[in-house]
Amino acid sequence: MADRIILRVTRYRPESDTEPTTQEHEIPLRKEWSVLDGLNHIKDHLDGTLSYRWSCRMGVCGSCGMTVNGEPKLTCATFLGDYAPGPVRVEPLSNFPVVRDLVVDIGDFMRKLPRVKPWLIRSEQEPPAAGEYPQLPAEREEYEQFSMCINCMLCYAACPVYALDEEFLGPAAIALAQRYNLDSRDQGASERTDVLSAAEGIWACTFVGECSAVCPKDVDPAGAIQRYKFTAAMDSLKALLLPRGAR
């Protein structure tokens, strides 16, 4: 393996650039280095003006999502050695406005997320006498996969529907709604119905599946969407066929 590799990094400085440019840097190629390590080397030793997000370096915070050789990736969990001999192209995530260099504005997602009420909703205000709501392992397994979302935005960058229609609620928001709909302690599924079943909700999804393919935590947002489509369809059928008291 060569001991050097080229990183082609997208640069965009709004105060001086009218469009993004590409800057090349030759950096050390070390077996244990991730793409994020390469960016940190550039930042620390070659060009301190480079802007990008990162925090935990452990695939937990989701902040270091970028496009690596055309694919949405967590750069802390994507290794330079897998792209040898290079070059490696690092760009901001697609489908989001670029703030600067590799930093994107995820405000659209943050505004949509509260609409699906991703928190436990209960009609009872006081906890039970035992101080907790018991839950069986099988009940936890119902929603556990969808609870693994780290809001990295890779699914939005990969989603062809969101690329064409920014009104689409999006994969992560719907998956997080399902996380609570399937929680045995939650009683708020009916409060999420209007948002999830709207035209820009589950029905906008064409089930391409790219969101699940790029998810670093195997959340399977495409599966969450299809599962809720079945629920919504059954609820509509019951409303049509059954007397109100029997629903």
UniProtKB/TrEMBL annotation:
Binds 1 [4Fe-4S] cluster. Binds 1 [2Fe-2S] cluster. InterPro entries: 2Fe-2S_ferredoxin-like_sf, 2Fe-2S_ferredoxin-type, 2Fe2S_fd_BS, 4Fe4S_Fe-S-bd, 4Fe4S_Fe_S_CS, Beta-grasp_dom_sf, Helical_ferredxn, SDH/FRD_Iron-Sulfur. It holds the Pfam family Fer4_8. Signal peptide: none annotated. It catalyses: a menaquinone + succinate = a menaquinol + fumarate. One of its GO terms (molecular function) is 4 iron, 4 sulfur cluster binding. One of its GO terms (biological process) is tricarboxylic acid cycle. Pathway: Carbohydrate metabolism; tricarboxylic acid cycle. It is an enzyme of class 1 (oxidoreductase). The keyword Iron applies. Residues 139-169 form the 4Fe-4S ferredoxin-type domain. Keywords: 2Fe-2S, 3Fe-4S, 4Fe-4S, Iron, Iron-sulfur, Metal-binding, Oxidoreductase, Tricarboxylic acid cycle. Its cofactor is [4Fe-4S] cluster; [2Fe-2S] cluster; [3Fe-4S] cluster. Its EC number is 1.3.5.1. It comes from the Bacteria. PANTHER family: SUCCINATE DEHYDROGENASE [UBIQUINONE] IRON-SULFUR SUBUNIT, MITOCHONDRIAL, SUCCINATE DEHYDROGENASE IRON-SULFUR PROTEIN. Belongs to the succinate dehydrogenase/fumarate reductase iron-sulfur protein family. NCBIfam families: dhsB (TIGR00384), PRK05950.1 (NF004616), PRK12385.1 (NF009051). This is Fumarate reductase iron-sulfur subunit. It comes from Planotetraspora kaengkrachanensis.
